[in-house]
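Lab notebook, design round three. We kept the backbone fixed and only want residue identities now. Task for the bench partner: fill in a sequence for the structure below.
Input structure tokens:
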């Protein structure tokens, strides 16, 4: 094992600690702060106390949903940046979230909530994936640039549709629509779909770590070393669309997590996908979990949309990353 691999293993260990710490912070803090002793007592001794209700049925499921959503977005962002070889690629660039958003707003307009809303949102993302795929698939050729342009144009069309829906919607549901569009982790049961998609996707991608490493150097080099780049790019597109649709169905379109997480890890020297993929899930989940904690506590008892928090934090972080990378290249 090389020295760089050992450093990457140490980084993964640190991210595991960060993930556990972010979950602990998320469970402990809220409109009613709970001490570490109270939290530990709830997990050790089950009782019918109000603290148990707060921790086990409100904060823990919400914290896990935030972690799962962050992991889904970070994994999708990492795969898309490898697929498109574009450092600005994020999970929403291909228009899948636009399809989910249109479907979700129409469902809210019809009065559909809870599980029905999540299902329709997920279905809308998958429908968008099928449309974009059909517009790009050719038996003899698969062009990543064409895929990117199609996704951007589809997203623009969905944006126009969203504007029309908001304009025509009654005032009494407009606020809930706006909150959903900004991104919000809702209190509810842990998303079983999110857990299944995240775990299976991570395992599958780890099995493709070597082809992904080669693809990151370009399709021509990967093809010359025996990688079926057409099959791999189609698979990555479908997988990132599935990851994005799942994340949006849980929490709406939350920005910047999928964009900045891979950059942070690469800046820390983590380039190999066998480490990068695991690191992105852990770091992305931790970042969104901490952002959701801030959203719940900054002006408690009022809860801010977590998408606004990730944007406010993500913009300066991304600008710092750009400056750091520019200085690194210059020297």
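Proposed sequence:
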């Amino acid at each position: 094992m090389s020295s760089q691999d050992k450093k990457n293993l140490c980084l993964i260990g640190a991210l595991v600690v960060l993930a556990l710490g972010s979950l602990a912070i998320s469970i402990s803090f809220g409109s009613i702060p709970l001490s570490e002793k109270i939290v530990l007592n709830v997990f050790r001794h089950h009782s019918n106390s109000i603290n148990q209700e707060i921790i086990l049925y409100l904060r823990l499921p919400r914290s896990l949903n935030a972690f799962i959503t962050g992991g889904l977005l970070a994994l999708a962002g990492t795969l898309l940046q490898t697929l498109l070889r574009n450092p600005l690629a994020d999970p929403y660039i291909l228009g899948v979230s636009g399809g989910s958003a249109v479907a979700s707003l129409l469902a809210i307009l019809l009065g559909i909530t809870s599980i029905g809303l999540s299902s329709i949102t997920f279905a809308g993302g998958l429908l968008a994936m099928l449309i974009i795929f059909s517009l790009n698939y050719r038996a003899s050729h698969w062009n990543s640039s064409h895929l990117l342009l199609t996704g951007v144009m589809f997203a623009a069309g969905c944006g126009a549709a969203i504007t029309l829906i908001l304009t025509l919607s009654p005032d009494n549901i407009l606020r809930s629509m706006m909150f959903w569009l900004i991104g919000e982790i809702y209190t509810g049961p842990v998303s079983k779909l999110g857990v299944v998609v995240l775990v299976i996707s991570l395992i599958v991608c780890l099995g493709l770590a070597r082809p992904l490493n080669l693809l990151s150097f370009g399709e021509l080099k990967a093809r010359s070393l025996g990688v079926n780049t057409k099959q791999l790019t189609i698979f990555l597109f479908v997988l990132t669309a599935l990851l994005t649709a799942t994340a949006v169905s849980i929490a709406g379109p939350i920005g910047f997590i999928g964009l900045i997480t891979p950059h942070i890890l690469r800046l820390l020297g983590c380039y190999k996908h066998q480490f990068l993929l695991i690191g992105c899930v852990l770091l992305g989940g931790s970042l969104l979990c901490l952002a959701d904690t801030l959203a719940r506590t900054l002006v408690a008892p009022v809860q801010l949309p977590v998408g606004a928090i990730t944007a406010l934090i993500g913009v300066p972080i991304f600008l710092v990353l750009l400056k750091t990378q520019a200085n690194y290249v210059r020297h």
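Keep this in mind before ordering anything: The chain has one domain: 3-330.
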